[in-house]
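Quarterly update from the structural biology core.
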Amino acid sequence: MNDILPDASPVWQYLEGQVKAVLDQYGYREIRMPVVEPTALFERGVGEHTDIVEKEMYTFDDRGGDSLTLRPEGTAGCVRAALQNGLLHNQVQRLWYQGPMFRYERPQKGRYRQFYQIGAETFGIATPDVDAELILLTARMLDNLGLTEHVTLNLNTLGSSEARGRYRKALVDYLETVKDKLDADSQNRLYSNPMRILDSKSESTQALLDDAPTFDDYLDDESREHFETLCRLLDKAGINYTINPRLVRGLDYYSRTVFEWITDSLGAQGTVCGGGRYDGLVPMLGGKPTPAAGFALGIERLILMLETLNKIPASVFNTVDAYVIMAGSAAEEAGMALAEQLRSDVPGLRVQSHCGGGSFKSQMKKADKSGARIALILGEQEVQDRTVGIKFLREEKEQQSIGWDELSKAIQELI
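Predicted structure, tokenized:
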């Protein structure tokens, strides 16, 4: 787990702001869930035989003897919250959330045991248009961040639960004939979670899958029509995609549409955003049958992409607009009051007042280090004349002197 320090937090705020703006454009509303849930929620919702539940969850007994888990993902908790608070009763919901998730896995660059996600979930819409909307929404986010050319959309359908059952049996029958040649993880998954073998990172296992039965032969007609309609909608919208028949995602609750935005800009190919449809999850967690779909994106992975590809605007790091320099006790009193007046008169203006005394030279150094565009200078003479010196720190402009009464208006024109 890692700290996010002040020098890094502006990038996080920039990314979160860009994503939130797009979610607002599409009419999604924020929901905030606890980071701790009953362990059974994830065992039922995510799947007992997934890597998350078997290997990665932070689980503990509280003082009352109840088994609790730090949330490893957001969808199950969002469904629980929606059910518990009556949000799904004959209603369509478009929800989003953000926050930390927790998984015990080998730390690596862009992946920590406490990591952050932004996710969105839709409930009550069975048609493929909302699948398309989620993909278009994520495409717009990535485009606004300048990442479109560096990501590829992978798309697949997992069909109905009945179709998956038929395919699962055929897949296991085939894999049993090559069991000894499978990698160790795939051998362990053969009977508990065989479809995850399709997503194996082992090249030798992937080669064996070339002769495996394909899901397309077992797909039900309704799911096939759903997927074809989704593809037509994406074609109309100009979204490029690759149909990847081995894309299954790592969680048990997915059905029909699954998608991932992947990149190779960080070295090894990695997923930056993924999701799909999970129509069976709400009844699995005790609710009435409710169609649902969603996605989650990894904030750390996207920030790594922005940094690697130099896609962070320089303005992101400018956290101060004006720095107030005050030399002398009279200037300190006047400067503090002027700074407060500026904050009131110019909403959004970021003013940092110097505190702690020091020479004019040392204060100027701190003004420059703050990243401010201008320094507002107050000395004894300025207090007597009721003026402020304005020194431009980032531009080749002559220093100006402005009266106190005109300062707010002048600042609005300068910043």
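The mean pLDDT is 91.
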